[in-house]
Amino acid sequence: MRAGPELGARPAGYGLRQVLSRAALPNLLRLAVLFGHNGSLLAVEDLNAAGGVLGRQLELITEDDQSKDGESATAVKKLISRDKVVAILGEVASKRSLAGANVCQKEKIPMLSPASTNNTVTQVGDYIFRVCFTDDFQGTVMAKFAKQDLKVKRVAILSSVSNAYSLGLAKFFKETFIPNGGCEARSTRLSPSSIH
Prior knowledge:
There is one protein chain. Strand 3 (about 85-90), helix 4 (about 95-105) and strand 4 (about 110-115) form a beta-alpha-beta unit. The chain starts with 13 loop residues before the first helix and ends with a helix. The longest helix has 15 residues, at about 135-150. The chain is about 40% helix and about 20% strand. The protein folds into two domains: about 5-130, Response regulator (Rossmann fold); about 135-195, Rossmann fold, CATH 3.40.50. The strands form two sheets. It has a five-stranded parallel sheet, with helices on both faces. A two-stranded parallel sheet has the order 6-7. The radius of gyration is 20 Å and the shape is elongated. It is α/β, with parallel strands linked by helices and about 200 residues long.
């Protein structure tokens, strides 16, 4: 599933169906999770109790990428080569998702991100999906809500120089708010050292 304008680009679950249709799959399907272990485990338990997927039970394998740049690609490579997973759930940060997505796309293993909002994540290829709204959508909706529902005319925009999500939302908010009659009273980009 994809959020945003590319929603209809291909059927939901396309990549997973391609993997599940491959010959010689074991009766146990291995899914990998890089984020949200407890929630994912509950979902797998529910699916298995209901008969699994396509008559096969699921096994959840968790790998910690430590939220470090570069580690998500390493974790994904390990999950695909060592653990023989059929799908990857996660990462949540767009930058780390992009690293993992390139590996998944090359290996034709579906990756589903629950929270990677940067538009480029799902542009990696047809095995990469998201289930959240993109930065441009969120920033635009926030601007419209501020202007139309809250009747705000002037705003101060605070963003973090070290956080692409923050910068993306601020950019798209401003691009919608100002042309629609809003005024930016102040814009401040904060660094982590200036917050403490």
